Structure formats: C-alpha cells, structure tokens
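Operator note (shift B, R.M.): manual run for Bifunctional diguanylate cyclase/phosphodiesterase requested after the automated queue skipped it. Running by hand, logging everything below so the morning shift can see what happened. Input copied straight from the record, untouched. If output looks odd, do not overwrite the archive copy; leave it for review.
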Amino acid sequence: MQQISVQDATERALRTSVVPPWAWALALLLAGLVVTAALVERERWEARRSAEEMYRALADSAQVRLREPLEAAAVLLRALQTVFLSNDRMDADAFAAYHHNLRLAWRVPGHVMTGFAYREPDPADPARTRYPYSFVTPLAGNEALLGFDIAMQPANLAALEHARDADVPTVSAPFQLVQFRDAGEKAARGVTVRLPVYSRGPQPVTLAERRARELGALAVSLRLEPMVRETLEGRVLQFMHVEVRDLDAPVEASLVFGTGGAAAEAYHVEVREMEFGGRRWEVRLWPRMGPDTGRAGLIAVAGTVISVLAALLLWSWATTHRRAVELGRQMSARFGESEARFRALNELLPALVLLAEGGGGRITYANQAARERLGEVVGAPLARLFMHEEEGRAAIQAAHEGGWDGKEAALALRDGGAFWAKVSLTRVEVDRAAHLLMVAIDISEQRGLTELLRHQAAHDELTGLCNRREFERRVQQALAAHAAGPARPPFALMYIDLDQFKLINDLSGHMAGDQLLVELVWAMRRKLRPEDVLARLGGDEFGVLAFDVDEQRARTLAEDVRRCIEDVMFAWQGRTYAVTASIGIVLVDRPGVTLKDLLAWADSACYQAKENGRNRVHVYRDDADASRRQSEMEWANRLRAALEQGRLLLDYQEVVPLRGGGAPAIELLLRLNDEEGRVVPPGAFLPAAERYGLMPQVDRWVIREALAHFDRLHPSGRGLHTCAINLSGASIEDEGLADFILASLDEFGVEPSRLCLEITETVAVRNLLRVIRVIERLRAAGCRIALDDFGAGMSSFGYLKNLPADVIKIDGSFVRDLGNDPVSRTIVGAIVQIGHLRGMDVVAEWVDSEQTLEALHELRVDRAQGFLLHRPERVVYQRTA
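Run finished. Output pasted below as returned.
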C-alpha cells in the first residue's frame, strides 16, 4: 500500500476541497485564539491568587520587622542599665565607651542618640522633678540635648514614669525631636524607648524600692521616618503602600509613617496590630499595583502570534513560499547591526570604556560611564587617568607589547579623589589605525569588603580584640625579630584564664557573660600599655604580648591586670558577680624558642596558678614540676587524638563469686593504643586526663561503648550478669551524667540491673550531697552502685552509714596484706560485717595468692578479683581475628 505523508495529505485536501484556502487558515486562527484566551484567563486567576498570598506574607513580615528596632533598642538599654547597677559613678567618656563596646546601636535603624538624664529637683519649684540630659552619644548633631529637661515633653515624661515604675522598656508617644525641629514636621517626628537607672546594688523588685532608688533614666531616640523605611526596605516597600498609626495617640496625630499612594480602600488591604513598650501600632498595607499579569500578556501575545503563524503557514502551503522568503529577508535586515548601534551599546555599558590613539595615547572616545566618573577626558593623555602617572605609562607600554589585562589600579576621579578599578588595556585597530582600548570596572566596594573580611578573620567579633590566629601570628613575628637581633630586650607572653566564668553563663545566660567580657576587656586595656597586644584566645581565655620587659616588670604588669579584673563588680538582673583570673607568664629572653613551646609553657604556668589557689600570677620555670606538667599536657593532647581516632581500648577482669556459683560478672579497664600501636596502661594518661578535664569525656565514651556492645564484652555473650564501670570525680559532678546513662541504657536496650557503676570512696565523700542525688536517681532506675577503694578514706565507716550503695569493694592495700597483717584482717572483717548488716555485697580486690584467697573465704567475703583468679583480657568485640 502506498504511504502518504501528512503534509502531502494536507496539500491534497486543500487542493481538492471546495472550501477556499483562506477559510482553512481563518478556522485555524480562530481555534488558536480560543485556546489562547482560555490560557490567558487561567494565568490571570493564578496571578491574582499568588499576589494575595504574597501580600499576606509581606504584611506578616512587616509586622515582625517593625518590632526589631524597638527590641534592639530595649536590649541596648537593658545592657546599659546593668552597667549602672555595677558602677553608678559614670562620666561622659565612660558612657560613650560602654555604648560603643556594646555595638548594638549600629543594628537599630533610625537611631539618633542614646542618652542618660539624672533625676534632680527643680531649683525653681522643689515639688517638681527635672530630668536634664547629662550624657549623650553620639554628641555630633545632638548637642542641643545636653541639659535639655525631659519633663518639658509630656510624651517623654509619661514614658519615663511608666518605665521607672514597671522596670520595663517603654515607648513614648510620637513627638517632635528637638534636634530636627527645623527639618519639617514629618522629618522631626520620633519616639523614645526608655528604661530607668537605679543606684548601685541588686535589681529592685518592688514599686517603692524602684522609686526610692531611682537615679535617672536612659533613652534611645528613634526617628520614625528612617526607622520604618529602613526596617521595611526591600520587598515590602517595593510592592506595598504602608501606613503605620499609633492607636494610643489622637487620630489627628496618630500617623507614624505613610508612603502615600491611592486610597487604601480601593485595593486589597492587609491590617496588622503590634504592641510594644506600652503602645499599640496599627500597620495597614495595600499593593502599589494590581497583580502582575505580564505573563498572561505574554501568553496572549505568544498564543496570538503562534495562531497567526500557524494560519500563515497553512496559507503558505496552499499558495506559495514567496511570502516566507520575503519575511526572512526582512527579519535579516531588521536585526543587522551597524556601527551606530555598537556605539549606543557602549554608551549603555556600566563599565568605563575609552579609546585612545596608539601613538600619542590621547583619548578619542569615552562612554557615558567614563565621562560621569572621570569627567571630560577626550583629548587628555591616557596615562593621566591613573592616580600614579608612571603606572599609567607602564600599562601603555605593556599593552603595546602584548596586553595589560585584569590589573588593579587607582584611577583619578573628576573631583580629585580616586577609586580602585580592575583595568584591561589592549591594542586594537580602528579604521586601519592602531588604537588603545581601555575597559575599567569599579572594584572599590569589593576591596573594602575584602579589607573588612580580613579584619573580621583576625579579630574577635564581641570584644574587637585580636583572635587566637592573629595573636599567634604576632607572637611568631616577635620570636623572629628576637632571633634576628640577639641584643633586643626580652618580651613576655601572658596567658589569662578567668576563674569560674562558666558559673555566670550557667546562672545568668550567655548574654550576661558576653557583657561581662566586654567590661573586663575595657578594664584590662586601661592597665596595659599602648604597645602591648591584648587578644581573646577562647571563651574566657585571653593573651597578652608585652614588649621590652624583664621578669619583674612583666610580673608587675600581670598583677595590675589581675587586680583590675578582681575589682570589676558585675551586676546582672539582680545578681552581683566578682570575677578573678589566673595568669601564667613566660619570659622570652633567649633564642631558640618556638611558638609551640611558648604557648605550652604559658598554658602550663596558668594551670600552675590555678593549682596554687587561683586568682594569682605564676611565672614559668624550667624545673621538674614544669617538666611533669609539660608531660601531662602532651598526654592530654595524645588522649584527645586517641578519642577522635578511636584508639581507646577496653579490657575486662572477671569478678569471681567465693560462695557458690553464678553468672559471670566483670569490671572494665581502660587502655590506650598509642601512635605506634603499643598498648599504654591507664597510669600513664589518666592523671593528665584528670588534670585537664578530660575524664567526663572518657567516662562517657566507656559507658556508651560498653552499653552499645554489651553482649559482646565477654565470651559468655548474653549470659553476662553484671558489668562494672569506674566513674571519675569530675563525671560525678556533671549534672547531665545521670541523664546520659539512662538515655544510653534505653537506646541500647540494656537492663539497668546489669550495669554497676563504681565510685571511689574519696570522690563520694568529697561532695557527699551531690553524689547521693546522682546515686539515688540511678539506683531508682535499677542500676547497681559500688563503693570502690573502701577503707582508704579517713572516715569510711561513718560515711558508709549514709551512702546508698549496693556493693563495697575493699581497698587492695588491706587485701594484699591480709595473710600476714592482723590489723588488715581485723579491718577487712569489720567491713564485711558492716556491709552484710546493710545488705551489701562485699568484693575484695588485688587477690594474688592462695593464702589471701583462703583468708577471704574465712571472712565470708562474697566475691573477689585479682591476677590469681583472672588476668585482664581484651573485650570480645575489639579482638582482631
């Protein structure tokens, strides 16, 4: 059967049909227009729906964002109030410095000034109270406020009195700011956020106490027009008209902000209410224009064009291809480019484009961007555009020799200034003559941002001090300079660690801790010399690099810093804190010292200061104690690495029943696999772990590993009865330990009765009340508690009466001498009798002879462990095949 293509069939139908070709084309055109109309209507419906969702989202965003500057002002005032509670003797310089250190004013749009007014009786009328501004920052532009009486402004006075009585941030009614009284009514309108200041001491809690201790008032002035406009800048003001009214103000004075525009009732209106500082604001938003139907228009145009083109295509099949050829010729001519269009394109480019003669270098053409930035430069030498003309001549020479591409250079502005640009200069031919084409892009903002990022990378955001990385770089420079000049005077490195700083964060929050750090930095800077380098090395750790000092001068400087920290009395929300610091000093007075050595010695000296009782200065000495501390620091670092790399090992030793059989019980023992694969006993690294606070992390690792692999610890598998784990004193003092143990038991499905936690007697009696709370909670869940090394303490039997434990493990020093020391036998017998009387199991450690084992049987000890009964073995799941 002969096959016929669709095109052939269509052409045949057109030729044989009685309907003329134009009718087929018209029918196709009408069908296309109908489909296009349906698509356009659907798109308009979608546009309206999307627009309404966007309007609601923008209204919600505006409501939230309008609170932000008021809340930021309230936080700033609360921080300054806290400063006054700890130091109510303030001067203008200190007030400005504290305000600058807080860095919160930068985040408050519309911020005009932050001020403080003392409360005083009016000399003319003693029954009246005045509040003249005493401190104002920034002073520039706010000079008129110094001495200005707040009580003269009713709106301000009402906010001040409400804030004083409630001790909450209060917002005034809108009023005309004194500083802008000549700027027009709209520009001068503003509000103040106020908070009282009380005399030094704890935060007052009653109304009578607040009024009695009122010292004055803090205020943050905000211009309403820039505050609202900057806060809502972006999509809100781009797409919406906004009207903000103060609902508590008279109707004629209630308008806070308005963008104008058509009457709100003519559009879709979103209304939100916001309450802050005792005032209610209403936010009304309506769209600047109707829903965007541009896409519907495009669909209409595209559908119409497609329909017309389809109809024309059908018409062309029925007639001739001549029209298509003619249309192609017209389109080709329409889109042909010319020299005039090329120049027009250059005029519109944001980059600076200039053309200069190849020989003399005189400029023959400059586009609009170049003329606006550089002035009328046509006819001027190209080299003079550069801030440094010799650099311009070198660039021209390089362009002739092969190109000068993407180089950064300073170009001269028309007003005499300069800006940084990325410049490309190349040789081209125009009208068969050599020319130089220069293209420059302004990168001043990019360079400024790069400098800002470089500064942020080297400084601490909170305090503005050098960070650890920058401090180490400066120490390295000082070491290199000292090594290069043997005759240079020595310098000192101080390591400052605040004592018990974590307590403030735990009790009052991190915001209080941050404010305290800012105050401490301010105090330390006053004691240090201008050439000294102060840096923040960590959360509560600081470093000082002091040049040109001997040991005595370094110690004196460190003592000054220590005393100034001790003198800071910090008050926050009713609490008052005193902070101390331990300071370690290393004097660099000989060559060959490395950065690593210096930091390690300073850290060691600081730890020695803490060991000596805290709140003191210690100078590093290269002696036996220092070597021991250095060794412990190295072991601490090796232990941290072993924890991160999974190189800790677990051994078990069986605890054998002495009276009858029973399921096996074990005690887990910790080992370390060093960098060379050798097994290190715990005596080598656990002292360092205890000194440097690593024991809670180690104990949690042991607990989690044991519970996660409980049925693969011992060859008996699920038949294992009890697993004992030793807990350090630092872990017992961790308030979250019990939660961690109980959560791990639940996660890995281990019965709590199968877990025995061993606590040494000396740890238990060191903090008896806290230990009892932890023990009782774990025992209530079903865990067993063993009192380890019993008998080593001075008051063992007295504490045994009150400690809630299930097992007593007799200290090995008594067990070892049991066969030949009557005193040891008597003590062990007494422990067994008292333990059995209290219903406890009694376990003996260090059993290494048959004689000792026989004596334990005679004394009716329940269980025993030692090398005679079982030597420690690696847990099953860590054994290699």
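Quick read of the result: The chain has four domains: 58-287, 339-447, 459-622, 637-878. The first strand starts at residue 111 and ends at 118.
Leaving this for review. - R.M.
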